[in-house]
Amino acid sequence: MRIKICGVTSAADAKLCADEGADFIGLIFAKSSPRLVAAAAARRIVKALPRGMTPVAVVRDQPIDEVRALLEETGIKRAQLHGAEDPAYARAVGVPVIKVFDRFSKRDLERLRRYDVFAYMVDLPKTAASAHGVIDAGFALNAKNYGPVIVSGRLDSANVGGLVRRVDPFAVDVCSSTERAPGKKDRRRVRAFIEAVRHAAAPV
Q: For the whole model, what pTM was predicted?
């Protein structure tokens, strides 16, 4: 079971996540995010990462040339597409892609099948109605028929275990529940989340 900690904004927090056992960190370049990282700062974070930690550039509906230039400048080798990017866009990024899906109908599953990507992320839509929900586990299970699945969306140390046991995903993704403030990680919360995931994923 892989673990991705998203919303990292400093080399110190990247090291914290690595020390606690995370596999991926997410660096957010979507311009509306309070966790936005400048390319120069991201480059410094990437250069300081310990071996075995993989950075992911999180983008949303940005021009493809801008995204490719960002990846080149920062040295990041994975991209997470959080918007309405189509399969052609995903192919054109030039690095392995995680494509996010936040709607769970049969039609959305058919749309998912058209993407040839590194992994699919099943996330909650960022709406007030989803504030206390968790993802559709049935959709995530169906998505596993087409490739590795990452589950996300309002996960914390209390609710992640049940989802891990039901879906058995390739990875889990977390952001706000591991913070003391937006973009500032809290070691105790990071540790609690990772321990919950490892416990749920352990063989019975």
A: 0.95
